[in-house]
Amino acid sequence: MVASASAQQASVSTDTSVAALLQKHDEAMNQKNLEAVMALFAPGDQTVMIGTGPGEQWVGKDQIRTAYVEFFKDYDKGSLTRKCEWSTGEVRQNMAWGAAMCTMDDSLKDRKRTLRSNP
Questions:
Q1: From start to end of 9-60, where are the E strands?
Q2: How far, in Å, are 9, 48, 79 from residue 6 at the CA level?
Q3: What's the CATH number where 16 sits?
Q4: Spatial separation of the C-alpha atoms in residues 42 and 45, rounded to whole Å
């Protein structure tokens, strides 16, 4: 398959944009900065976040905010690290999506844990 130079450049730009967005998300999560996390999501009630387990779907910024408040209860600030074996995403005009398979390490009160998403 051969792609045009402009399509290849757009793909690199998209990959860079998605990687930068994920990096900002990771930094905000590690610092438990709810406002910085929420700034990464589009406004409105059509924004959707899907988790890794049954029933893990949050629609609209209010539900997404509530989910992150709960996530932040599970680890100590500064203890969260993430390594993704695979990730992808795309940005098109006013829409973006991302998916990843990752291993996350964190701790809560000196109790360490490892979580795997979409193993």
A1: 48-50, 57-59
A2: 5, 30, 40
A3: 3.10.450.50
A4: 9
Contact yes or no for 48/57 (Cβ under 8 A): yes
The H-assigned helical ranges of 31-116 are: 34-38, 60-72
Domain that holds residue 84: 5-117
Distance between CA atoms of residues 119 and 100, nearest Å? 10
Grouping H, G, I as helix, E, B as strand and the rest as coil, residue 58 is: strand
Q: How confident is the model at residue 1 (pLDDT cuts 50, 70, 90)?
A: very low
Please state the pTM of the whole predicted model.
0.80
Q: In the numeric block, which tokens belong to residue 26? A: 């990771």
- The whole-angstrom separation of Cα 113 and Cα 105 is 6
